[in-house]
Amino acid sequence: MHPGNAMAYALYQRCADQLIIGPMGGIVGISVLAVKCVMDLMGIPGRDQDDLMLQVQELSSLIISERAREAEQGRASNKQ
């Protein structure tokens, strides 16, 4: 992981149980309210929160996409 993403990853880890589940049961995102609350609790200045929020959202999107890809590969291998 790039060192510049360490704080975003730490935030994601603290909020990983605050994922948004879609109507079909898939993960669609992370709760920005949860991320904002944790940033406030951590004392991250407001001026830094916007950029950090974007990093967390991008990171969560990558993680969610990778999980979906792995799940699809698992389903495909189970069919064989």
Give, in order, the helices and strands.
Answer: HEEHH
Oligomeric category: single chain
Contiguous low-pLDDT stretches (5 residues minimum) are: none
Helix content: 55-70%
Strand count, sense and closure of the main sheet?
2 strands, antiparallel
Distance between the termini: 34 Å
The share of residues in extended strands comes to 5-15%
What is the global morphology?
elongated
Count the beta strands: 2
Topology summary:
Elements: H1 6-15, E1 19-21, E2 27-30, H2 32-41, H3 46-79
Antiparallel strand pairs: 1-2
Helix pairs in contact: 1-2, 1-3, 2-3
Structural write-up:
The chain is mostly helical and 80 residues long. The protein contains three helices and two strands; from the N terminus they run H-E-E-H-H. It has a two-stranded antiparallel ribbon. Strand 1 and strand 2 form a beta hairpin. Helix 1 packs across helix 2. The longest helix has 34 residues. It is elongated. The N and C termini lie far apart (34 Å). The mean pLDDT is 91.
Short description:
By secondary structure, the protein is mostly helical.
Sum up the structure in keywords:
single chain; 80 residues; mainly alpha; two-stranded antiparallel sheet; 2 strands; elongated
